[in-house]
Amino acid sequence: MTKLFEVPLYPYQRSKDQDAASPVRHPVVIIGAGPVGLALAIDLAQSGVPVVVLDENDKVSVGSRAICFSKRSLEIFDRLGCGDEMVQKGVVWNLGKVFFGDRKVYEFNLLPEDGHKRPAFINLQQYYCELYLVERIRMLQAEGKPIEIRGRNRVSEIEPAAGHTRLIVETPEDAYRLEAEWLVACDGAASPARRMMDLEFAGRVFEDNFLIADVVMKADFPTERWFWFDPPFNKDQSALLHKQPDGVWRIDLQLGWDIDKEEEKKPDHVIPRLKQMLGDDVDFDLEWISIYTFQCRRMGTFRHDRVIFAGDSAHQVSPFGARGANSGFQDADNLGWKLKMVLEGKAPERLLDSYAYEREMAADENILQSSRSTDFITPKSEMSRIFRDAVLDLAEDHAFARPLVNSGRLSVPCIYDGSPLNGADTDLLPMRTRPGSPAPDAPLGADWLLDRLKGGFVVLGINCSVPEDISLNGLKVVGVAIHGPDIGPELRDRYLGEQSKAVYLIRPDQHVAARWLEFDRTAVEAALAKALGAKEEEHA
Amino acid sequence: MTGMGTTGLTKPDAFYESLLKAHEGLSKADSDAFNARLILLMANQIGDEAVLEGLLASAATSGVSAVKD
Fold first, then answer.
1. What are the structural domains of chain A?
2. B56 touches chain A (CB under 8 A)
3. What confidence tier does A276 reach under pLDDT thresholds 50, 70, 90?
4. What is the pLDDT of residues A305-348, one digit of tens each?
5. Angle CA(A227)–CA(A228)–CA(A232) in degrees, nearest 5?
6. Do A386 and B44 touch (CB under 8 A)?
7. What's CA A505's distance to the chain center, in Å?
8. Largest Cα–Cα distance of chain A, in whole Å?
9. CA nearest B37 in A: which residue?
10. Which of A31, A144, A172, A316 keeps 20 to 30 A from A364, CA to CA?
């Protein structure tokens, strides 16, 4: 059977730009058709911003790679028009088991909070995620949206110029010049764009190698997350077993730093190890083996004038906690609307500095969380190992020790506290929906709140009338009013607290910009101006 | 950090004896592991992050290896 990742999905086709008399300039060029580049392209194109995606390859990624997609990512996919495809294919899991040495020390249930359209997590091979994003792009193209993916188009030179960036793009035929008003580098952890521009990628460096194996099991195995500390089949290291769609199981074995990668990758070496892990009587086929290396670090800043970095090119974290691709989608979510507003002249260029501010803050949070997990999983000193083992020993009998067990704190979106875009707040409303926070979902009768918070800025009135459209500098804002019976306990708890009504200004990326106890047009206009990057005096 | 004040233990000698007894016959590695478990159990019993930070500081500034502030 031909595997999905062996089929060219966006084969090379000659573009008319290659035969243009002078270099063609595009509003937005994205380097990299990985999950982050594709998500950003969809966001831009579906709101009418022309976008070209260049990728040196022409296929989805090989092997499972990123496999855990968080609720926030699924909500972003909903906004991009491909959430159902992901969730229908994905595997939902709730039960986790933690092993230490050769014994199970405890198990946990994720028990996700009720009243959300999407589950806390799904497991899905990265290639399926990319496939559904490409399929969504094909749908947008059929609708006439301005979006192109150019396969086997490799950017070989980047030259910043006044008001744009010049590129040289290599293809199987010839090289051609291209210009981008805004260039977004979503070209992964090894980012050739970052190297071409000679930009630093610093931070606390953890050096580690992981062997990843995708295994097709012949027999049934439970849909649970199994994590081992110091198992007999991988002494002094960790191991993770996770179910994916199509009966494929993902196994991550930590290998440490000083290893012979070629030797470790050989099936003769891997299979006995897996047999020891799964039991001798479990029949399986090895679908894919890879070794990857990670380091925890980030760029000093994600915006370099007209070149912007998003996803792994800007920040890399350890895999514990599923904070790689998930944070990349949040980058795309944060950047898309800001690029649109700047390109359409509705916001000053400095709005893009808030992308850097907010997403650098998120990257720091992700690096902190994943560094703590790494310190727990791979103790760096004798005493840190003694404490780690003490926690695991206590966890078996003492519930209090279980929250100390850190096998990865699963990705949750960052709250942009202190962001320059945050407007008015009142502490009479619940903490969790303060300005900067991602708007939490809630049921609205048979529908869902987040499905209503789409299509740009939204003024949400709860038990409070708001105009259907408000505009500022020609920017239309959608009014959504929710009254009476539609206000369920979840919506009340998350958005009203003790109050009887509230008004929220929601950004296009579904983060809260500002909130009040009642509607005041002037206040909303001021908050909107601030959320678009206006300085204080401009909307005083 | 100022001193922790007088003992809160009503039978200090008896507690000290129990502490030593618990370590009797243990190897160095087992004693280290025992202490680590005990510290975690005590931390949970104290259950107040500010108090724990204060105790960490007190431990750091007492003894030969300590840096006095």
1. 4-90+122-199+300-366 (3.50.50.60), 431-539 (3.40.30.120)
2. no
3. confident
4. 999 999 999 999 888 888 899 999 999 999 999 999 999 999 99
5. 155
6. no
7. 23
8. 74
9. A390
10. A31
